[in-house]
Structure formats: C-alpha cells, structure tokens
Amino acid sequence: MTKWIHVAVKAILLCVCFAAASADAANDVDVGAFVRKDKFDDIKLSPGGDYYAATVRLEDRTALAIMLRSGNKLTAHFVLGKNTHVSGFWWVNPERVLISISEKYGALDEPQPTGELYGINADGTKLEMLVGYRVQSRGAGTRIQPKKVEDVAAFLVDTLPGDDKNVIISVWPFSEDPYTRAERMDVYSGRRTQVARAPIRRASFVTDNAGTVRFASGAGSDNIRKLYYRPGEGAEWMLINDESATGIGEYAIGFSADDRIAYLLSEQRKGPDIIVAYDVDSGQRKTVLQDATVDPHAIIYSDGVVGLDTDATGGRVPVGALYLDGRPRTAFFDKEAKEAILQRELEQAFAGHTVGITSITADGGTALVEMSSDRNPGDFYLFRINERKADYLLSRRDWFDPEAMAESKPVQLVARDGSPLHGYLTLPRGVEPRNLPLVVLPHGGPFGVRDMWHFDDEAQMLAGAGYAVLQPNFRGSGGYGRTFREAGARQWGLAMQDDVTDATKWAIQQGIADPLRICIYGASYGAYAAVTGAAKEPGLYRCAAGYVGVYDLPMMHTRGDVQRRGSGDTYLNQWIGPRNELAAVSPVNMADRIKVPVFLAAGGEDERAPVQHTEIMERRLKAAGVPVESLYYKTEGHGFYMEANQREYYTKLLDFFHRHLGGAKAK
C-alpha cells in the first residue's frame, strides 16, 4: 500500500508544468499528455475552511488525500486495492470525512457502488469501516457490537448539517431488488438505528431540512418507478406518482427552507423534464423551471453548490438548475435571489466558462469555485464571497494550454423523420472548416447518456491530428426529455443508427467534411454504432474503429453484468430487444457487408462488453476478407486503465486514421 500512498501524495503536491499538448495537421500528437491522469478528480473545502479533501486517480484505483489548507501539508490518505475507487466523499463535520466506495473493471466502465462507507478524521486518525458487507464482528464473546454485521450496501442520504455525529443513510439488503430502509448512523462507531422503511423496492430517500425522511422513490423488477410521500416521522406513506398510471417519473430533489414546499424533478410525456414546486399540504404542483430543449442537468442549491445527483440533499434548499443547451447555462426559481446574483457575477468574471461552486465553508464566507470549458479541463479558485475576490488555487491538468486547444461548437440538424438532433463539432485550430477529414464519434451508453460541451480528450486528440470531430446526440441519448430517450428503445441498428448517418451527411452538406475522407469510431455502444455504420453505409465511411464494443446483441442476454439481476433482464428486453429478435441488427452477422478497413480493441476482463464480442467480430471480418487490425489486453476491462496500454492503443488508433484519412500520427 505504501507505493500507492506515495503516488497519491505526489499527485496532490507536485506542480509540474508541461508543454501544451496541441497539434495541427502538420505536427504529431502528444498522446502522453492526453492519457496522463488528472492531478485529482474532485476537491472539497472542509466546513471550517482548514482542510481540503481530494480524490486522486491512480493507475487502476482512486485514492483520497486530505491536506491542511495552510501549507498544503498532507494529513491523511485512504486507498484500497485494484479496481476499487473512492467514488464519493463528504465532510460530515469540520474534522471528519465520510467515504463511499465503488468498483470499476475498466476506465470506461460505469462505477458499481459496493455500498461500503468509511470514516476518517482529517488528521488521519479513527479510520473505520462503518457499514458494508466486509464489516467484521468483534467476536462471539464480545457483548458490545456497535456495527451490525450483515450483507448490506449503504448510501448517504443526508449529512445532517446540525449534527456532527450522525448521518442518514439508505440500507440495501443483499437480495434481488430489495426493500430498502433509512437509518441514522454514528459516523464514528457505525452504530445504526432504523428511521424509515420503504414502501417500494430499490428505494432512494429524501429528507427535509430537519433530517426527517419524507420521500421514497423506487421500482421493482418491472422498472416502473413510484414516488411516495409521508408528512412526518412514523406517518403512513402516500403514493403521489405511479409511472404506470401517469406515464411519467417524478423524483424529489429537496425542500424549501420552511419545509412547506417540496421540489420535484418531473418528466413530461413530451418535451424535457421540468422542476415543480409541490405543496405538501394541498398536493398542488406549480412549474418553477422549464426549458424548451433540454432537461435540468444538475440542481443548484442554496449554498450555491451544484449537485449532479439527488443524493445527500438533506438540509440543502434547491434554488435553480444547470442546463446543457449547447453551452451550459444556469436558471433560478427567483432571478433576484442572492444565489442567482452571485452566480451571474461569477459567470461574468469567468466569461466563456462553466462556473460553479463545488464546496463552501459553514459560515458561507469562502467557497471553492471551478471554471472549465471545451478547451480547459478545469481550474479552481478560492472565492471570498463577502469581498467578491477570487484567488487561483490549482488546475486539474495544467500541462494543457487552453488557448492552444480546439473549440467545440454546438450544432443542430434534422433527422430524416423530422426529429431535431443536437450534437457537437470540434474543429482543428487554424484551419478553414471546409472539406476536412472527419471522424464521427458516437457516444457509448447509449440510453440516458449524452455528449456535452466540455473538455473531451478524444475529440481534442483527434482535432489535434487535423480531423473535424462530430459527436451526435442520437435518439436514445439523455438530456432531451423522456420521449427522445424512449425513441431509442429497440432501435439499435435502426433509427438510432440512421441518426448517426444523417449527422454524417449533414456535415457533408454543410461543406465541413470531405465526403471521401470520413471514418467512424466509438467505444462500447459507440463501437457498435461504428461497425454497424460501416456495414449499413459502405460508401459513406473510409474506415471504422471499435473500442470495447458490443457486436453480438443476443450475447448480451447471456454474458456480461447487465443480465445478472431481474431488473437487468427487464432492461434488456425493453430497451435493446428480446434475444430472438437481435440477430439481424448484430454486426457479427453483417461482416460480409463491410467493405472498409476495421480496427478493434478490447480487454480480457471486460464485464460490460465481454471480450468474446470483439473476438467473434474479428473472426467474422477476416472470414469475409475485410482488412482488420486488433489490439487485446488480457488484464484490462471496459476501457484500458494502464497508461502504457492507453498510449499504445491511441498510437495505433491515430496511425490507423493516418493511413486512411491522412492526419497526424502520435509522437
């Protein structure tokens, strides 16, 4: 473990400046700058303002480091084994941090929470595993057992800002689609007391400002979501939304300061999600925020902090939302509220950037502010709120010069059936956007996932090699409302694929892309779309590349991690299709239709898209006489972790594109 501690310390404390990783079509691309790990993932200021806590990404795990704000002295660290990551952390009082753990078997994998919670003091003392399946008994002869020894997963619901000793957590028994319960947990001993039991399976909870559990939202194996409300502790649960009856899902995101109004994120039958104010006495709903194009991406709370999910919202009042309609923008329930005024001032000070408060001291005097953009991975400033003064603190990746990076522009087009589509176009610097070699880059997921305006490593790398990069948010993507997302259901290789084709043809019609120099590339579902695109549109693309892809759709019902639970089977049938209907849209059965070179890469430990997908695809391509290149790493998963492996992969990928499109190669 000592080795990883030293790595984490160096990653936090060293400030090494590297030359800008920019390139144009005449220069080779510095792949090393793009595969090098960020100095940290997240950083938060302690409530008293004395410490920073930060997650540090290592080769195949993520560590937590805590430092004194004065002098940047490391005071505590926490790191576990391979594929294990600190996925979340919260200051639960001025001296103690609560830590959640997840596992990932590849750089592109979705983190799978283990449900374990640890606590550690800022000075490194009293490190305890508080709850989780690996909690150990003190022995049969010991009468005092503060921690329950049971197979459960736990997740933070409320930090209880007025209580330095306890938090509210949700507890999930280890069973298929379990009924969950809310418990009060001592953050030092792990002792737990039940405060609520959910009326629905797989429920998450939301508390009011007093820390009382008031909402429960969940679904059974049928994946039909229900929202329940109760007026207070010990009261009966009342069903206030049933997705099977209303056709929409609703989720609580917090309460007004007086707890008389609850705020709900409400899906719509048509159009994007809205935020409504729900009067808990009368049951009346009133829309407080609505956008014509996109869903709220994140909620802004009364302390100014932007929350990317609805966990741990207790004691924090929703006041607005962040929208990703093209470039990010914010909107507030009350435009003249102090939070709205402060946000406008920050956005004016850091014009052209996404700006948000990531953490704030308990007295509201000092905030940690992050600014980022399509060309800047993220800079952090300490902001003294009363003085309205910001001091630069540090950057995620200071070896990039934002002025030398490519610009990403939001684009809009219309699909063949009239559906509006959105996406992003990244153009190489200093080149007229006419008749450029183009790489079409569909995202993974695919459902509920979207491309957005931010610093995208692959888009920047490809633009640095001289390519225009098009990232379409095809139907099925998230962020544009339930109807748009559900329009992708069972449309693998069909309407979803047509959207990618239509976006490619749009780039040609606009004069941006040279029709004779276009390749398609993606990872996971994006790899499926790339190889399927080459099969369905043999005259459109010069080459195709797939990274940790899914190519045999019936196999998804028998291999991989999705189908291991009842709700996973429901998901596969509803969103991808029954096993006996998928052969016709599987690329492994289209190999003879592919007329262009293909590059494939995969990891032997991939649980999301098992390596057999790629192996079969490669065999079928070779049997059909298609030129195919491949790269495998037995010890990698869904996306490559090891920097040396990433470097080799992107070097081969750029060389592949160089031979077929003519852009730059890797250094």
What does this protein structure show overall?
- The chain has 11 helices and 36 strands.
- By secondary structure, it is α+β, with helices and mostly antiparallel strands.
- It has a domain at 406-661: Alpha/Beta hydrolase fold, catalytic domain (Rossmann fold), CATH 3.40.50.
- The strands form 8 sheets. It has an 8-stranded mixed β-sheet, with helices on both faces. A 4-stranded antiparallel β-sheet has the order 1-2-3-4. Strands 5-6-7-8 form a 4-stranded antiparallel β-sheet, with no helix packed on it.
List the helices and strands and how they pair.
Layout: H1 2-13, H2 31-35, E1 43-45, E2 51-57, E3 62-68, E4 74-78, E5 84-93, E6 96-103, E7 112-121, E8 128-131, E9 152-158, E10 166-173, E11 179-186, E12 192-201, E13 204-207, E14 213-219, E15 225-229, E16 238-242, H3 243-246, E17 250-255, E18 261-266, E19 274-279, E20 285-290, E21 296-301, E22 306-307, E23 318-323, E24 329-332, H4 338-349, E25 354-360, E26 366-372, E27 379-384, E28 389-395, E29 407-414, E30 420-427, E31 436-440, H5 457-464, E32 468-473, H6 482-486, H7 495-509, E33 513-523, H8 525-536, E34 543-547, H9 566-576, E35 598-603, H10 612-623, E36 628-633, H11 643-661
Parallel strand pairs: 31-32, 31-33, 33-34, 34-35, 35-36
Antiparallel strand pairs: 1-2, 2-3, 3-4, 5-6, 6-7, 7-8, 9-10, 10-11, 11-12, 13-14, 14-15, 15-16, 17-18, 18-19, 19-20, 21-22, 21-23, 23-24, 25-26, 26-27, 27-28, 29-30, 30-32
